[in-house]
Amino acid sequence: MDEKTIRHLLEQVQAGQVNIDQAVDTLRRLPFTDLGFAHLDSHRALRTGFPEVVFCQGKTADQVSAIVARLAEHPGPVLATRATAEMADAVRRVVPEAVYHPEARMIVVERSPLPKRGGTVLVISAGTSDIPVAEEAALTAEVMGNRVARLFDVGVAGLHRLLAHVDLIMSARVLVVVAGMEGALPSVVGGLVRRPVIAVPTSVGYGASFNGLAALLGMLNSCASGVVVVNIDNGFGAGFAASLINQLDEESI
Amino acid sequence: MDEKTIRHLLEQVQAGQVNIDQAVDTLRRLPFTDLGFAHLDSHRALRTGFPEVVFCQGKTADQVSAIVARLAEHPGPVLATRATAEMADAVRRVVPEAVYHPEARMIVVERSPLPKRGGTVLVISAGTSDIPVAEEAALTAEVMGNRVARLFDVGVAGLHRLLAHVDLIMSARVLVVVAGMEGALPSVVGGLVRRPVIAVPTSVGYGASFNGLAALLGMLNSCASGVVVVNIDNGFGAGFAASLINQLDEESI
Amino acid sequence: MDEKTIRHLLEQVQAGQVNIDQAVDTLRRLPFTDLGFAHLDSHRALRTGFPEVVFCQGKTADQVSAIVARLAEHPGPVLATRATAEMADAVRRVVPEAVYHPEARMIVVERSPLPKRGGTVLVISAGTSDIPVAEEAALTAEVMGNRVARLFDVGVAGLHRLLAHVDLIMSARVLVVVAGMEGALPSVVGGLVRRPVIAVPTSVGYGASFNGLAALLGMLNSCASGVVVVNIDNGFGAGFAASLINQLDEESI
Amino acid sequence: MDEKTIRHLLEQVQAGQVNIDQAVDTLRRLPFTDLGFAHLDSHRALRTGFPEVVFCQGKTADQVSAIVARLAEHPGPVLATRATAEMADAVRRVVPEAVYHPEARMIVVERSPLPKRGGTVLVISAGTSDIPVAEEAALTAEVMGNRVARLFDVGVAGLHRLLAHVDLIMSARVLVVVAGMEGALPSVVGGLVRRPVIAVPTSVGYGASFNGLAALLGMLNSCASGVVVVNIDNGFGAGFAASLINQLDEESI
Amino acid sequence: MDEKTIRHLLEQVQAGQVNIDQAVDTLRRLPFTDLGFAHLDSHRALRTGFPEVVFCQGKTADQVSAIVARLAEHPGPVLATRATAEMADAVRRVVPEAVYHPEARMIVVERSPLPKRGGTVLVISAGTSDIPVAEEAALTAEVMGNRVARLFDVGVAGLHRLLAHVDLIMSARVLVVVAGMEGALPSVVGGLVRRPVIAVPTSVGYGASFNGLAALLGMLNSCASGVVVVNIDNGFGAGFAASLINQLDEESI
Amino acid sequence: MDEKTIRHLLEQVQAGQVNIDQAVDTLRRLPFTDLGFAHLDSHRALRTGFPEVVFCQGKTADQVSAIVARLAEHPGPVLATRATAEMADAVRRVVPEAVYHPEARMIVVERSPLPKRGGTVLVISAGTSDIPVAEEAALTAEVMGNRVARLFDVGVAGLHRLLAHVDLIMSARVLVVVAGMEGALPSVVGGLVRRPVIAVPTSVGYGASFNGLAALLGMLNSCASGVVVVNIDNGFGAGFAASLINQLDEESI
Amino acid sequence: MDEKTIRHLLEQVQAGQVNIDQAVDTLRRLPFTDLGFAHLDSHRALRTGFPEVVFCQGKTADQVSAIVARLAEHPGPVLATRATAEMADAVRRVVPEAVYHPEARMIVVERSPLPKRGGTVLVISAGTSDIPVAEEAALTAEVMGNRVARLFDVGVAGLHRLLAHVDLIMSARVLVVVAGMEGALPSVVGGLVRRPVIAVPTSVGYGASFNGLAALLGMLNSCASGVVVVNIDNGFGAGFAASLINQLDEESI
Amino acid sequence: MDEKTIRHLLEQVQAGQVNIDQAVDTLRRLPFTDLGFAHLDSHRALRTGFPEVVFCQGKTADQVSAIVARLAEHPGPVLATRATAEMADAVRRVVPEAVYHPEARMIVVERSPLPKRGGTVLVISAGTSDIPVAEEAALTAEVMGNRVARLFDVGVAGLHRLLAHVDLIMSARVLVVVAGMEGALPSVVGGLVRRPVIAVPTSVGYGASFNGLAALLGMLNSCASGVVVVNIDNGFGAGFAASLINQLDEESI
After folding, report:
1. Above pLDDT 90, what percent of chain C?
2. What is the bridge-based pairing of β-strands E197-201 and F174-179?
3. Pick from A115, C1, D160, H219: most CB atoms within 10 A?
4. Rounded to the nearest 5 degrees, what angle is found at the Cα of E12, between the Cα atoms of E10 and E16?
């Protein structure tokens, strides 16, 4: 029930064409969410920076290309995560401007890239095997209109590599820290800065890493105050949250 | 926002005291849930059989008696689960008609007991240690207006005890089956009847029962079709669900 | 020991060919279940609405087609769950009227569909990836003679989508709610209605979803009273239980 | 090695009292952290809004009062979490202006409260049993200089309670959502707003809640993008992170 | 339906007072378990060596003494496991011949001890802390009429202690091996003998022993063929099984 | 060091060719296990009923055939478990009398089958999917010289199928009970008999069966006294233990 | 069977008093471990630096004092771990020179302290709550004759505290690193040094630390090569292993 | 900032071209790690025995050959772990002197093998399936310049096989003990020797071994003092730690 319908009803009341009992009844029978729906929709109209997202894992290349094609009819950016090269080929046949980022395993359709707002989102990764997840986070934040810096392969067992970049670390506004194995990097980074740190455990590791559980528990128990955590391998979620935080004052929801 | 408010607004529109733009704006600014709220409330008014419930664990006797006293101002039944005798004493000082059921660890205030509707809810328990949970389920169903039969201490290791009551089992309309240890009883019962079986794992057991995890997993993996499960030791939840099922045709929500 | 044997024994007693001590001894030595077996069988004859079910996972297409062909000799419906298209092809070669439902991954042989009894079973799913499990539940309930409504892709992160259908939700007699990831949907639905809600966790998700464990634990700990749970991805079990509940008064076991 | 030491060395070089080889050698042999230490310390001087924190659990009342007394010699705020009333009494004997907040189980020493900066941090809790953790989050954020609003007891099983406050929810700048049991509330809230949502699982629940594991997994698997998670019962960490996010532009580290 | 009822029915058939159709019908309508029940009971009468057992944990001293007193009216042995000294005092007030074994935490009432049958049951324990569980196993087997030998404190880290008794080990007919921590002892013993080895994990240990889980998993994964396992700390179960095995040829069930 | 060596040394002492100091020194320097080794070996010579066993999983067909060929040079039986048809083909090329049992996934080389000793080992399985594990147990026991009976597909959800065979069950000397899903069958069987029951959990099931964990925990927590458990899917271990028990009096170790 | 026995037997052989068959038989019947036993014992005589150890947890003060008194009759050091002050009082009444170390919760009887050998064992702890475990490690190593240095409260969230001591860290010969929560410290330390690092997880933490599991998994998955791990809270084990490593060349076993 | 930069600055100070305030400021603004970096690098130059290591799992053959080729430009040894034969072929095309060890699944480039230092590292494995992990440990230690002995297939269920080699075991300086299934071997070995024992759990086993968890827990809970543990299947880590320990006095870091 949109505004027009309500306005029409009220005009009928005003004009005496509908009596009050009928109008009350009509309003009452509305699914109670319809007004709220409008409410949500108007607010949704403001969310231009929010990408439409497709989680590709478990879908066929045809399914992915069909969904992306439909979403790409709208002007905003489209992200497809966990995408294979084969899926990207299928998408490009129908949406030629789609770009595939193999390391991040993402397909991006970005007709008019958003202007960069807020400060820098710094994405740090512990090992080279963590890069796919880190790139997923970085690319998500970029597409959502953030300046993004990358600092990869600076795990805690080689502290000098991390500390050599302490100025970069300290100048970031929001940090996403990606690590597998013991997941210690967010604690070390969280101790260096007083900025929000979003920790992303990865399933990198073997034996008792239990597919990322060790890193996840490590991050949840971080001794550095202010570290928050997302799901294992959830680079997209971390990039999304980093963008929300970085653009707090840019948006007017 | 209740009907009166809407009616008043429409009368003002009808009378020309409020123009349509103002009325649309007023309606739009309503928290969208208010209509729904009314909707829910009217439906809530019909739920006379639904008890107010207090989960006592972790509360002091004073807190319990205060909460029960407040809830008992309404006409419907009040249940307090996981209650100690000391809590019951505190409650009876302010609500003298409260009754304490030590085995079920429940306090019941039931000013005008509901008429018994539907068929029989049969509560079966495997061992004597499961009785507190079974009694919690049975009492909950009784207070909600169901005929309840009890069949206790009929675990699967002594099958003859269970099979001696096969007629009682087959005549029940809904069955709640409570078991700890390996939690096998619901599978056996579920294989005898073609009625809904609600399985309740209990934390009874030791060693690798892991506080009811063994029984819970056993029940979720039951080879008998149609067995559904509630949380460990959640006798209240099982009794509640059994009542919902048993009175499907009695209520008119 | 069938009726003939007993009748013959009694005739011998009657004719004085067997004395009472011998007859008592013969009866006592009978496997005590034989009579009960008859008992169960006669009751089984009444269960016309209960499908024969084949769990196809881990079987070859040939095995599946052989089993279905054998079961299809009986008049009642046959369900094969977790079936592939290849299995369906093999089945249709021997049972041409078999129908394959690819989304539900089920093969159905339904010579004379059962009349629809009871109220509506509403199957709700949170995400598109949950649909195979939801369809398995829906189809199971339909084949067992229930009116089934579907409401898919109404996860809790987009509450307006769910609330837009509140009337449909409130008019259902039994609800099956299917969700992966955090498994929150049954709690929200369970708070809207006062009807039995059967929650089905799915293995949809990644990282710390641990193949459906997160959703399973979420549903078991639901704060909504009356929610009951089946095993992960067990759409068949949920549909079966929903049918048992919905047809409580239709059957006369 | 502080500035004085370095200055003195350079003066000796300038004066020709130490030759360059000696000076290089001296500088090289410095523990490499000493300069960095100064670096960190000067930055630490800017962190006036950051409270000193004592985790009281497992300490005696005497230990707590001694530690708080020492920290309270500095001008900034002091927080003691998981404190008992007895600990608070011990503290107040030596730091009379210490205030005990029994619900949050915190002792606060706040000589000159910080000015409130940024937008509103909204702390939402699902059940009454979650309030201690929620209050810990709220009080932490308040002491760190944030405007804090509270919205308690709005669990997902009674959606209308939550939706009645949708304007308050939408006007918050950062949200902390505290829930036990199935931990579904952050998903629902995260679907309503496009602001950072920090989810706090609590150990509230029983049976298969496994001391908060169910809620933790639920929140990590939230289907709402942008939800981040802290450790079970870690209200302090959530309040701390919320303050970091809310004051991103107020601070100049 | 006991023998008398059947005999009476047969007499009526013999006398022509009941025709065969009626008799068949009567027999068929019997709860099918009644005959079986008799069957089981007569077989139960033969089980004179089987003790009545009370699991005392979670019961009050009064409850224990009441149960033991009732069971002790029968001639067979009575065992009460997990009993405290206080419980034993209560029992002895009503059953003066009850004996308390503090290390095994058992109360034994054994009016006419059973003759010792079969070979020797050897109970081996790894550490001194495992002795309560080992004694529970040993005493159970003794009361059930077995010769029992004990070999305690021979853990695998001091192999010479174990090997010094290799003759005793090789002469046993059934072995119960009790160990906590890593639970390695059954593997070593199982490699020395070709007799049945019943492994009992204990909850002895700390840290990652997880209350006996480490020992349990170790025993289940034993590289020695023929090792079987009972629940954590379940000395009674192991002694019971050892007796069943040791007396296979003595009993005639 | 075998008997010959010792005898030769003693003869040298007797003949005065070696003095006592030298002899003591020689004996002392022996690895202390050598005598024991002899001891073990002589006892090993008696173990003719013990098969040599190859665990094929993770080996190539060539590796399996090479190992079996070598073991088959000895007169005793050879078992290869978890073998594929391809492995069996490879084996038969070099050991033509090898027999492949596809359901048990075992290759058996049995030149002179052992005489059957002891009573009957009864192998019971709950479902058809449990048959491979059950057959592995049955075949192992048969090859080791036991009479074996099979009772398959008698799960607890269809109790009448189990009870129809109560005489067979009661006449067994040792029982192996194989079940997946909730693993309830050993409890039921253990309650019917007073013979040793060896429970074998299988990884059959889905969802929260967690690859047999549910069945394993169920069996460890069995409420039937005397049930012992082996590892998940370990049919061989169960058959081996059953043979040890069944032949306790046949062997003279 | 010691040397005397063997010598006597050989003399009898030499003297013709015992024939060779008898002698072989005698030797064969020896428990095969007796020679080995002597072997082990002579080696045990060399182990003067190894303390006798009592694990006090779960024992009474009287039991502890009795055991310590007996062990203290020997000249070597005695350690009692997890001891309370009350236990220490009881011990000192019978062994006056016993010293209680409350932080390490250890009682030490050290009549003639061992000379310090090897390099320095450095014990590092992350937080103040980890100190009891760290002290247990340090004291164990000291009593076993090692120079021990301590570096406490240098967790990874305050990296500058750790790096300020980099020279101390680099000069240690063996390092014991104790940490709870996320257990990240051993990875950082292991990256700084190329010496053996023994990691000790502690049960310090809350929520999803799961009593030290998070720290344990973190340490096992350390990205720093050469880190080895002991059980949760096992300071004694770490100190013992550190001493074994540090004194590799001092001892001559 | 390398030495040149510092030297230049000091020369400017000496020459009066830079005043002291400027020089202090310059030094302070240096990233604090730069000096430390130099520090670490000089120490790194001493680590000639430390191999460069490539973890091949999850990489393509091309990636592995590219990385190994680059690392092989340096004179020290290169190790590639978890390598397939196909990877080795690819490597040998660019680094012809690379050697593939199929059992250890390692590629080794060792231009000038290091001299053997220290005592013997003994690598023991329980079963033949543990050999790949054991070989990985052995080869790692060899390449790092250690004498290595191997003792394979001496699991605890055949104790005589282990004890036959007690002299070899006792003469080792450091022991690596590799075992799957119940992981009991390190406890037995640790009880025989007083040398450092590094335990390596393997994922060998099935059912409730849970991919090595059973062995891991067993080893962490070892009753033998001084046993330390590495991650599941981490042969490389064990060999690396063994080398660190064995060469403690050879290196001069």
Report:
1. 51
2. unpaired
3. H219
4. 115
Query: Hey, which chains touch C, using 3+ CB pairs under 8 Å?
Result: A, B, D, E, F
User: Does the distance separating the beta carbons of H203 and A208 come in below 8 Å?
Assistant: no
Residue F84 tokens, joined:
């594929």
d(CA F207, CA C235) in angstroms, rounded, equals 11
CB nearest F36 (choices: H129, H160, H206): H160
Q: Chain H: residue nearest G200 by CA? A: H228
The half-sphere exposure of B171 on its side-chain side, counting CA atoms within 13 A, is 11
Q: What does the alpha-carbon distance between residue B80 and residue G10 come to, in Å, rounded to a whole number?
A: 84
**Measured distance CA(C144)–CA(C242) in Å, rounded:** 10
* Residue-wise pLDDT tens digits, G9-62: 888 888 888 888 888 766 654 433 333 333 333 333 334 457 778 889 888 899
Flag if F228 and E241 touch (Cβ within 8 Å).
Answer: yes
Find all residues with CB under 8 Å of C207, minimum gap 6, and list them: A201, A203, A212, A216, A231, A232, A233, A234, D220, D221
Q: What is the pTM of this model?
A: 0.85
Residue with tokens 């944990």: E57
Q: What are phi and psi of G135, to 5 degrees?
A: -65, -35
User: How many Å separate Cα G61 from the centre of its chain?
Assistant: 22
Specify whether the CB–CB gap between A14 and B13 falls below 8 A. yes
Q: What is the pLDDT of residue C47?
A: 41
Enumerate the residues of chain C whose CB falls inside 8 A of the CB of residue D156. 156, 184, 187-188, 191, 223-224
Chain A partners within 8 Å of G208 (Cβ): 217, 220-221
Residues from chain E that touch C22, judged by Cβ atoms under 8 A, are: none
Residue whose token pair is 């007797």: F14
| Gap from G159 CA to chain H (nearest CA, Å) | 12
3-state secondary structure F47-73: CCCCCEEEECCCCCHHHHHHHHHHHCC
Asked if F130 and F156 touch (Cβ cutoff 8 Å), the reply is: no
F102-160 confidence digits (pLDDT tens)? 999 999 998 888 889 889 999 999 988 899 999 999 999 999 999 999 999 888 888 87
Higher pLDDT, E145 or H250: E145
The rounded distance, in Å, linking the Cα atoms of H115 and G127 is 42
- DSSP assignment of E211-239 equals GGHHHHHHHHT-SSTTEEE--TT-HHHHH
ipTM over 0.95: no
Pick the range with the lowest mean pLDDT from A151-160, D189-198, G113-122, H42-51.
H42-51
If you count residue pairs, one on A and one on C, with CB atoms under 8 Å apart, how many are there? 38
Contact of C28 with E3, CB cutoff 8 Å: yes
Average pLDDT, chain H: 84
Which token pair is F79? 């078992």
Q: What is the CA radius of gyration of chain C?
A: 23
Q: What Cα–Cα distance (Å) separates residue H191 from each residue in F76, H122, H200?
A: 36, 16, 17
Alpha-carbon dihedral of residues D11, D15, D19, D22, nearest 10 degrees?
Answer: -30
pLDDT of residue G178: 97
How many whole angstroms separate alpha carbon B50 and alpha carbon B243? 10
Interface test with F, best of B129, B161, B182, B211 (most F CBs within 10 A): B182
Return the amino acid letter for C139: L
Assigned token pair, E15: 């006398």
Antiparallel, parallel or unpaired: β B146-151 and B106-109: unpaired
Closest-CA residue of A relative to B40 is A32
State the smallest CA–CA distance between residue E167 and chain B in angstroms.
33
At least 3 CB pairs under 8 A between chains C and F: yes
Interface of C with E (CB under 8 A): 3, 6-7, 10-11, 13-14, 16, 20, 23-24, 27-28, 30, 32-39
Chains B and G touch (3+ CB pairs under 8 A): no
